[in-house]
Amino acid sequence: MLHIKGFRVALLSIFLLSLLGVQLNAKAEKQTVYVIPIEKNVEQGLASFLSRSLQDAKEAHADHIILDINTPGGLVKSAIDIADLITESEIPVTAYVNKRALSAGAYIALQADNIYMAPGGKMGAAAIIDGKGNAADQKAESLWLAEMEDAAVKNNRDPKYALAMADPDIDAKEVGAPKGDLLTLNADKAIDVGYSEGNADNLSVLVKKLGFEKAHISYAKESLAEKTARWLTNPVIVPILLTIAFLGLTVELFSPGVGIPGTIGFIALLLFFYGHLAAGLAGYETVLLFIAGVILILLEIFLPGGIIGLLGLGAIIASLFLAAGSFTVMAVSLLIASAVSITAFILLTRVLGKRMKFFKKLILNDSTNTESGYVSNQTRTDLIGKVGVTFTPLRPAGTVIIDDERLDVVSEGSFTEKDKKVKVIKVEGSRIVVREI
């Protein structure tokens, strides 16, 4: 009897263990690895895409995130924003250097919990430069070196090699970067110095090495709006857009009506602000500031004085800088756009002899010359003391007839009816003053 009871207990145990195994397998099958590409230039559009992708991974209850990195670098501000996003992620992150993680790309890779590299992959060459390609100022360089060092230290990597990537004064000759050279690690050297956990031929191999053989792989993809925003906020595209905008609006000043140049310039401005709005760089308040600046400049045409125009110009420039992801990029972009526009203006006015037609649309063009039947006002002191009759009511201005001559006059009082006798009492330049008698 006891033997039978023990047998039943054994069967029940086996059954329960099998159920547990099914549950464990089901749980393993539900694991998700989220792959996010870090490609092309590092700019604010990429930061916005990564922010959205990390949120999607969190909502999908992803177990691991892989950053598939292949970038030549980009903007420091955007790289720091991306670093903050990775650091704040509650999901473990692995950087997969799939060919290149250079400059800002190396900094991003160092934020990850693990780094793996594809054969032939490279990571480093992270010296900071300004928008013109020259070495950055000492303040910016100091900040960047501190960022690189912190990125290595917080993930237990030797900071010497991170610093050697950004500072040629660091001697790292043991890995092929003596003093005077920037360090760029290949896949094998990265393993030697503890910057890489290993090599992986492709993402599938990497997923297996991470222990997610049966996990579901989900790939983050950029939406059309995100792709457009990344393209429009590219540091190369921004000066082109602004140059087209400024040049188009400059040529429009010499065009009758609303012409093609002005339309193209306006579209270029729309694309600039759309890209920066979609990338999260600008808010609607920035667009409103730009519109306010344009309105103030138009008011300057009707209310000349200079102050309103300067305020409008300041508002426009401020809106462009507020929308920019980088002060340096915007400064260089405005410099290029202004130089091209000024050159075009000089070419049109001095070389081609063009005249601005925009202001003719706002100014009365009727000529008041003798050929058109107009006679300039003369001082009529000879009229003083003469008497005439009002041809129209004087309110207080109107018309009188004196010696069969029709004259524009002003009454001394507030109102004089028609067909009343009046006398000229004063002449001040072209102003004739009469009094009812």
Shape descriptor reads: elongated
- The helix-and-strand class reads alpha/beta
Q: Supply Rg.
A: 38 Å
Q: End-to-end distance, in Å?
A: 145 Å
What does this protein look like?
This protein is α/β, with parallel strands linked by helices. The chain folds into three domains: 29-222, 2-enoyl-CoA Hydratase, Chain A, domain 1; 226-281 and 324-361, no CATH class; 374-436, Beta Barrel (OB fold (Dihydrolipoamide Acetyltransferase, E2P)). The chain has 14 helices and 13 strands. A hairpin with a 2-residue loop joins strand 10 and strand 11 (405-411). It is elongated. The chain starts with a helix and ends with a strand.
Describe the structure using short key phrases.
single chain; 437 residues; alpha/beta; 2-enoyl-CoA Hydratase, Chain A, domain 1; OB fold (Dihydrolipoamide Acetyltransferase, E2P); 3 domains; 8-stranded mixed sheet; 5-stranded mixed barrel; 14 helices; elongated
Concise account of the structure shown:
This protein has 437 residues and is of the alpha/beta class.
Write the layout of secondary structure elements.
Layout: H1 2-29, E1 32-42, H2 44-59, E2 64-74, H3 76-88, E3 93-102, H4 104-109, E4 114-117, E5 122-124, H5 138-153, H6 159-166, E6 184-186, H7 187-192, E7 198-199, H8 203-209, E8 216-219, H9 224-232, H10 237-252, H11 260-278, H12 284-302, H13 307-323, H14 327-351, E9 387-390, E10 397-402, E11 405-411, E12 421-428, E13 431-436
Helix pairs in contact: 2-3, 2-9, 5-6, 9-11, 10-11, 10-14, 12-13
